[in-house]
Amino acid sequence: MDNLWKKETARAEYVDIFASVQRSPLDGMLIELLKMQRTRKSNQQSTEWRSKGNELFGQGNWIEATNCYNKSLCYAEVGSENVALAYSNRSACLFHALILDEVLVDIELAKNANLPDRLIPKLEQRKKDTLNLMSMGERKEEFKPKLSYKADKNFPCMANVVAIKYNEEFGRHLVAKCDIPVGKTVLMEKDFLRFRDKPSVCYSCSQPCMNCMACPSCADVMFCSVDCMNNDQIHKLECSTFFPNRPLPDRFLIKTILFAITSFPDVNSLMQFVEDALLGKPETLPTSLNDPKSKYHFFFKLATSAPYIFGPSEAYKVYEVMMNLPKVTILFDSDRKKRFLMHLVMHHVLIHNTNSFGSEASTYVANVTSLINHSCAPNIISCFLRGNVIGVTGRPIRKGEQLFINYSKELDEMPSNERKAELKSRRGFDCKCEKCEPTRASIDPKLVTSDPCYKYVVKNQDNVQETAMIRKKCVEFLNKHGRSPWSLEIEMVFNVYANILGNIL
Ligand SMILES: [Zn+2]
Ligand SMILES: [Zn+2]
Ligand SMILES: [Zn+2]
């Protein structure tokens, strides 16, 4: 992207970065159509979702029933009986799933939402039953992951055994400050921004929550608390608009741009910040991640090297949607500001291409985790849990060594040359990892396959009853053999361990 952040020579204005994008009168019509298709509150739809929920509830499918009641809650017109019914029915699902603290929260929410008198005795009974079960200790303990070491002072998401370094070859990257054995949680980072098409996740803080409440104006946005609802400055800019009709990467990008806008008092300050940040050296970083401006600074300086998944024409569509959000249009009221927004959108598209993780239903960027480079023979397992990206050591790491994760597990089985070509075209780098370009002679597989831990893992890997023991054996094996040249056997145990962590952590 040669002309990114280039200014016109005659004027102090950024060039029209979308000049080459074919525009057609249809684009405008499409936007109008999207606006018309905006999802709105509707008690009819709310009732339909509740009926679906009741059907699933009858079948004992608490999770799916909860999802339907959440939908019912989203569509329910503010102040209507449908709101209270959704909370009340959801509390019944939670009761059966033994998520007891949350049952009590939903009962209160239902009572405060004009619950019809006829339902009050039923709810009071449920409250009694819940308190009874609680007194008998019937509740599911929630597992809370934590770092295995003290947190770094400036970047608390990172254990103090890891440091951020910079060099020409790798850019910013993470390095071990001491020897770290297998099975240690060295990163636990709340994503910078995430977008998830799942119910039971707060739109604002992205924490999973069983007691979500619906945005009073939108039929597809939920919050975990009144605080999140009232303090979400980002959603205030897009509330009551048609943005949920856009596909997921667009919505994620829109959210990142809105984050940028809300992190500064006005557009001029944001423009000044960008000019300063572009002048800074690539290794300069904010010294903490504690306020929105530093978080955005960190995000803005992430690598932008990957080739297009999203190109200028997709970026233009995002820009166009932004300019149709009334509260954003007011802010970008001059050509100078509009041109700036074009570049900002393109810059975010490049960051997204290079650093985002996720699937069709979920996209996220985590600031510090994004600094970890790729290796097809990684030493860190990353998984997503309760709104956090977790990094656990999967091979012993020595002091001074770099941390690596595998960005593209799905390429594991490919022959080296094909995998390298694929990584180059998708991610824009030549992989020189020890699996792609081995520098050490491979060892006799028997040295590994004769290990009792290896034998145990091979034999039991699909036995869910033995998860705890398999996990123990994996750690023991990887601590012993994890520093040998990468081999199919090590990869197998590494992947078994990674799967267990993904499910258990
Ligand atoms: Zn929240
Ligand atoms: Zn809203
Ligand atoms: Zn590789």
Notes on the structure:
With 505 residues, the chain is mainly alpha-helical. Among the domains are: 43-135, Alpha Horseshoe (Serine Threonine Protein Phosphatase 5, Tetratricopeptide repeat); 162-190 and 368-504, Beta-clip-like (Beta Complex). 46% of the residues lie in helices and 10% in strands. It is built from 19 helices and twelve strands. Strands 3-11-10 form a three-stranded antiparallel beta sheet, with helices on one face. A hairpin with a 3-residue loop joins β1 (162-167) and β2. α3 (62-75) runs antiparallel to α4. The longest helix has 21 residues, at 335-355. The protein is globular. The two termini are 40 Å apart. The chain binds zinc ion (3 copies).
Termini distance?
Answer: 40 Å
Structure annotation, total helices:
19
**Low-confidence stretches at least 5 residues in length (pLDDT < 50)?**
none
Lateral strand order in the biggest sheet: 3-11-10
Q: What's the total number of strands?
A: 12
Described by strand count, sense and barrel closure, the largest sheet is: 3 strands, antiparallel
CATH fold-level label of one domain: Beta-clip-like
CATH class bucket of one domain: Mainly Beta
Bound molecules: zinc ion
The whole-number mean of residue pLDDT values reads: 89
Which band does the percent of strand residues land in?
5-15%
Q: How does the overall form come out from the CA principal axes?
A: globular
User: Mind telling me the C-alpha Rg?
Assistant: 25 Å
